[in-house]
Structure formats: C-alpha cells, structure tokens
Amino acid sequence: NTPAFCKFKKQLFHSPLACILHSLCAAMTVPETVLFSNQYYCCIIYSFTAYIADYEEQVLLSCIMHGWCLKCLAHQMDLDQDALQCCCEHTELIIKELDLQTLWNKF
Fold first, then answer.
1. What is the torsion angle, in degrees rounded to the nearest 10, for the CA atoms of residue 104, residue 1, residue 18 and residue 101?
2. How far is residue 25's CA from residue 7's CA, in Å, rounded to a whole number?
3. Is the CB of residue 51 less than 8 Å from the CB of residue 41?
C-alpha cells in the first residue's frame, strides 16, 4: 500500500470511467428533440440517476480525501471545530497558488 500504488489504483479506476463517460458528454449537454408516447415533442437533456455506493467507493468516485469533510476545511481529527466552509473561490485559489504535485502530496 505505497502512495504510488494507491495513486495507480485510483487512476486505474478513474481512467476507464472518464473514457466511458466522455462519449456521453454531448448527450448530457445538448438538448435532443424526442417524440413521446403522447405524440408531443419535447427537448430533453439526458442525465444520470442516483448511484448507491459505500463510503470507500464514494470517496473514490468524488475524488475527495478519505476522512476529510467535503463541506468545510476542518481537520479530519477535529470535525466539530469552527471552520471555514468550502467554496469554489477557495478551490480556485489553491489550484492557482499551488502546483498539482504539492496539492496531491501535502494539501
């Protein structure tokens, strides 16, 4: 269970999913006109439904760190502390300020 092997396992899981789902991207962003059984046409955009998974699989699928809070910046050993809420601006700032290697290994 070295860090390199853990990274390999994640990439092995995510890469095929990314390839499979990439082909569906157009159907999930561009409306399609479809004739329904009531003889009316409607514009629809396809989407996925709920996916039931255990915690480990949810962590893997959502690309978050195991044991970390998805909503706030609290440390995993003290999730009851007052902490800043996660937001897109914070995410964009750390991506801008830190390189991917540092984010992966230290953040």
1. 20
2. 26
3. no
pLDDT tens, position by position, 30-86: 888 999 989 999 998 887 766 667 777 777 777 676 766 666 777 667 767 777 776
DSSP per-residue letters across 26-43: GGGTS-EEEE-TTS-EEE
What tokens appear for 48 in the block?
Answer: 């996925």
Each residue's pLDDT tens digit, 8-31: 888 888 888 788 888 888 778 888
pTM: predicted TM-score of the whole model, two decimal places = 0.35
Task: Find the farthest-apart pair of alpha carbons in the chain and give their distance in angstroms, rounded.
Answer: 58
Tell me the C-alpha distance between 34 and 46, whole Å: 11
| C-alpha span between 21 and 47 (Å, rounded) | 11
- Strand, helix or coil for residue 72: strand
Question: Where do we find the tokens 């409607």?
Answer: 42
> Which residues on adjacent β-strands are paired with residue 72?
85
| Residue 56 in tokens | 């480990």
